[in-house]
Each structure stands twice: as C-alpha cells, then as structure tokens.
C-alpha cells in the first residue's frame, strides 16, 4: 500500500487512536515483556546462559520460542536440561534451521522435488549451480522473514546475489534452489501424540520479485479434495520421518500443476498473525494449544466449519517517518472486521517492505462466503493508506 499525498496533521490523532483502541498489542520492540511475570535479558540462542540465569529454580513447566527458528536449538536443549516435556527431535530442529537439510529429507521421502545446491562460498555455489534450471532463488539456509532471499534470472547474477544472502546467514551457508511457479501456500499444523490433529492451509499473495514476502493470507485455501488428502498424508509421513511427536509445525509450499512442493518447514508457530487467522477461521487457539503441549498437557483442538478469513499486511513502498495511517476508523466499521494490529507509532522510521520485519501492521477480515470477505478486502485496501514524511 503506497503513501498518500501530504495531509494536515489534524486527521492523525483520530486515525492513530482508532488503531490503538482496536489493537491488542502495545508498541514495543519486545511486546511480550509487558505481560511477563519476569524478564531476563539473555539471547534466546544462548541456552547455557539462559540456564545459568535461571539456575536454582524448581518451577519450570515448559519452554517455548514462538515464531523463532533461531530459538529452536535452545528450546530443545533447555527442555532436555530441565527434563521438561515438549523437546522436539534433533532432526526436526536441524531441518527447521537448515533449508538444504529439509530438501534432502523431502527427497528421501519421494515428495515432488526441485533441484538445489548448498555451499559457503561464491565460487563453490556458482560452480554447483551450473546444473540448475534458471531462474533460481538464493537463500540463507537458516534465515527467516525472507531476509537475504534473492531471485536470480541468470547464472551470472549469482555473483552479486550470493554475498547478500551470506550476510543474513548465521552459519554462513546459502542454498540455490530452482524457482517453482505456482500457487504459494502456507500450512499451520499441530501435532499431538504423533498425530497431526489439525492443519490449516492458507493461500498467500506475495510481493513481486525479488523479495517474495507475504502480503495477504486467505484461509482456507481453495484446494481440490485430492490435493488436500495428499497434503495430509505428506504431513503425516514428514512428522514420522522427523520423529516429531508433539508441537506446532509451520510450512511453506507451492501447488504447481497438481503437485505439492514443500519449500521449507519450522517446528514452531508461524508469524505474520497466522495464529489469529486460524482462530478466526476454525475457532482453535493455536497458541494455547501449543503451550499445553509444551507443559505436557492435552491440547484442546475442536475446530468448527471454517469461516472465510483474510489477513492483509500494511506496508510502505519507500523509507520515511510515519506521519499517519489513514482509514483505520472506516476499516473498523467494515462488515466482517475482526481486528487490526499496528507495530509503529507516529514519528517512527518505516522501511520499505523488503522483509517481513518491516511490516507496519496487519488487519483481519472474515465473512460467510469467499465473495463477501473478498469484497471487504477490496474496500479495505482502498481505505487504508500510509502517509510518510521524509526521514
């Protein structure tokens, strides 16, 4: 959504305060801190320091690192260290943090696949990628939120793309994958006692090349029944192969010419408001269920027939300082309005939407039919406009 021509500042207080009333999140770099009984400022990647900071405690019930791939190794280490339930298998954690390993597992399972190579240096990757079909996507094997992902139309563009991807990789490793065209999807699943007890499939609208970041999610995705059945079987076999017994599972995939290509997975809850989307559509509180599993309880999963739901991300096209987000009051009055969440305040610097972390906010709409919710979404897109000042 683009920036509007400059308006008078008088409209700002109304539109911003409306957002504050309807948003459940408070502006903060770490919004959960306000809700925590205790806050310990230690990196979630340093499990031993976390353990040391909490040494002597006997009231640990479970460990979670929601929506974070990088926290998964610590989550597993701490659960085992404190002898708590909910520790994911080592293979599930490694596959969540290494896209090339996940590709290998999909190949071992005989899933539809596309060629890819992985490496740590530009010459190594350029040489290995000669056998690939272009265009390709260059990705850090272990980044999230589309950080460092670059589309390469020709082999000679790898020399520029690979260093950019390496900058975003904690392990300094990159994968080059053949690009699969089709319908982008995301799956949010819940596994309990080695059974996939729920999986919700959303259709994704992505930003244009070269970033491919989620702009909109529509749930449930309109999948043919045979494709949906195949997906359920693929999820079952994947969890079996990973020895993944309990917890959330988030996957990106593409439906292309009737085949399902699994792109990447994470053994954790998804970001971008996906939990709220699933709860609105199916009545299942994924976060509560995930917490229950993490402490060894039974997850309550009783989905109703899905409502049609759309989540739209609010973004800026250019950098600047936020002056106003217009149309939020009118958005809240739309039929089917569910919620909105804004993550920046007036005066904050805003970046173009080149990675998921740069979103300004999002809103959720629902309806009884696809046509009803799509109509509300079209109206909302006209209403909600971002106004920026020069930085």
From TrEMBL:
Residues 103-295 form the ATP-grasp domain. Pfam families: CPSase_L_D2, LAL_C2. This is ATP-grasp domain-containing protein. One of its GO terms (molecular function) is metal ion binding. InterPro entries: ATP-dep_AA_Ligase, ATP-grasp, ATP_grasp_subdomain_1, CPAse_ATP-bd, LAL_C2. It comes from Kribbella turkmenica. The lineage of its organism: Bacteria, Bacillati, Actinomycetota, Actinomycetes, Propionibacteriales. Keywords: ATP-binding, Ligase, Nucleotide-binding. PANTHER family: ATP-GRASP ENZYME FSQD, FUMIPYRROLE BIOSYNTHESIS PROTEIN C.
């Amino acid at each position: 959504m683009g920036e509007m021509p400059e308006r008078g500042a008088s409209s700002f207080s109304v539109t911003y305060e409306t957002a504050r009333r309807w948003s459940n999140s408070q502006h903060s770099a770490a919004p959960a801190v306000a809700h925590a009984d205790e806050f310990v400022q230690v990196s979630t990647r340093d499990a031993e320091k976390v353990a040391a900071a909490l040494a002597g405690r006997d009231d640990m019930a479970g460990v979670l690192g929601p929506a974070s791939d990088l926290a998964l190794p610590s989550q597993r280490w701490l659960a085992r260290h404190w002898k708590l339930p909910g520790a994911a298998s080592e293979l599930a954690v490694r596959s969540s943090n290494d896209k090339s390993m996940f590709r290998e597992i999909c190949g071992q399972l005989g899933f539809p696949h596309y060629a890819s190579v992985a490496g740590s240096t530009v010459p190594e990757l350029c040489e290995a990628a000669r056998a690939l079909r272009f265009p390709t996507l260059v990705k850090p094997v272990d980044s999230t939120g589309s950080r460092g992902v670059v589309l390469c139309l020709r082999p000679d563009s790898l020399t520029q793309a690979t260093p950019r991807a390496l900058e975003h990789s904690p392990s300094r490793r990159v994968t080059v994958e053949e690009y699969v065209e089709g319908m982008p999807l995301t799956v949010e699943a819940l596994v309990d006692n080695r059974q996939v007890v729920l999986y919700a499939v959303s259709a994704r609208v992505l930003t244009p090349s070269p970033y491919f970041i989620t702009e909109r999610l529509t749930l449930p995705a309109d999948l043919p029944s045979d494709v949906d059945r195949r997906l359920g079987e693929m999820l079952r076999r994947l969890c079996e192969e990973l020895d993944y017994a309990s917890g959330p599972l988030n996957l990106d995939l593409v439906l292309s010419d009737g085949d399902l290509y699994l792109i990447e997975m994470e053994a954790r809850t998804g970001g971008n408001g996906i939990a709220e989307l699933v709860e609105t559509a199916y009545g299942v509180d994924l976060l509560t269920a995930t917490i229950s599993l993490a402490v060894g309880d039974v997850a309550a999963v009783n989905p109703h027939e899905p409502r049609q739901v759309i989540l739209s991300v609010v973004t800026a096209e250019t950098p600047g300082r936020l002056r106003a987000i217009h149309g939020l009051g009118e958005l809240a009055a739309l039929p089917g309005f569910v919620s909105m969440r804004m993550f920046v305040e007036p005066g904050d610097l805003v970046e173009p939407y080149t990675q998921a972390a740069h979103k300004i906010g999002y809103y959720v709409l629902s309806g009884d039919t696809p046509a009803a919710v799509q109509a509300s979404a079209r109206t909302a897109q006209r209403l909600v406009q971002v106004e920026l000042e020069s930085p």
